[in-house]
Design goal:
- This protein has 210 residues and is mainly β.
- The chain has a single domain (8-167), classed as TolB, C-terminal domain (Neuraminidase), CATH 2.120.10.
- The chain has one helix and 16 strands.
- The protein has one helix at 9-15, and strands spanning 19-20, 37-42, 49-54, 61-62, 70-75, 81-86, 93-98, 105-106, 114-119, 125-130, 137-142, 149-150, 158-163, 169-174, 181-186, 193-194.
- The strands form four sheets. The chain has a four-stranded antiparallel beta sheet, with no helix packed on it.
- The radius of gyration is 17 Å and the shape is globular.
- Bound molecules: calcium ion (3 copies).
- One calcium ion is lined by residues 135-137, 152, 154, 156-158.
């Protein structure tokens, strides 16, 4: 089943957006708010952009600024960078920007939709969903965009890769049996296992952190 992953904005909303801590507003030794910061998407300027705010809602900063849709923020585990989805070149691509908004980099470049970036726990790789092969697949690329490779490779819709905390496995959503199921595979695509098996839609896996 072909499905354009750019049309699942609703799912990003259902899943919740990238949350990094909650609590008081004091400053940690790192210089960041002790309670953390929250990346989110908003169309308050007329189209979707990536924003950052402190956990009490203060310090709102816009990290992107272009007329296309930018959403789906995902933090690097060290909190220095945010991967996100953007349509600024006319179709969905994965970009990365520093947490201060500097140095935006385009990591994918093809006419298909590339979406749902998820950073590996060690920061070296980014999993994403792409339709470049004609249907949704889970790909992994190096964090600089090099060496993209297809981990799923079947005619059903596969997407929404989620890393295990130790970085050895990726859970994902697949419709290869005709409806949504949760699967898990090793981070190189081997060792595929089907974890759910029922006629209802199972989707949007999220691995519990350590
Ligand atoms: Ca925008
Ligand atoms: Ca693309
Ligand atoms: Ca597929």
């Amino acid at each position: 089943m072909h499905r354009d992953v750019s049309n699942v904005w609703w799912l990003a909303t259902v899943l919740g957006l990238a949350l990094a801590g909650c609590g008081s507003n004091s400053t940690a030794p790192s210089g960041r708010p002790a309670a953390g910061q929250i990346a989110f998407a908003s169309n308050r300027d007329g189209n979707e952009e990536i924003y950052l705010m402190d956990a009490d809602g203060s310090g709102v900063t816009r990290l992107t600024n272009n007329p296309a849709r930018d959403f789906w923020p995902g933090w690097s585990s060290d909190g220095t960078r945010i991967a996100f989805y953007s349509e600024r070149d006319g179709n969905g691509e994965i970009y990365v920007v520093n947490a201060d908004g500097s140095n935006p980099l385009n990591l994918t470049n093809n006419p298909a939709s590339d979406a749902t970036p998820a950073w590996s726990p060690d920061g070296s790789k980014i999993a994403f969903t792409t339709t470049r092969d004609g249907n949704g697949e889970v790909y992994v690329m190096n964090a600089d965009g090099s060496n993209p490779r297809n981990l799923t490779n079947n005619p059903g819709w596969d997407g929404f890769g989620a890393w295990s905390p130790d970085g050895t496995k990726i859970a994902f959503n697949s419709e290869r049996d005709g409806n949504g199921e949760i699967y898990v595979m090793n981070a190189d695509g081997s060792g595929l296992r089907n974890l759910t098996n029922n006629p209802a839609a199972d989707l949007a896996p999220a691995w519990r952190p350590r």
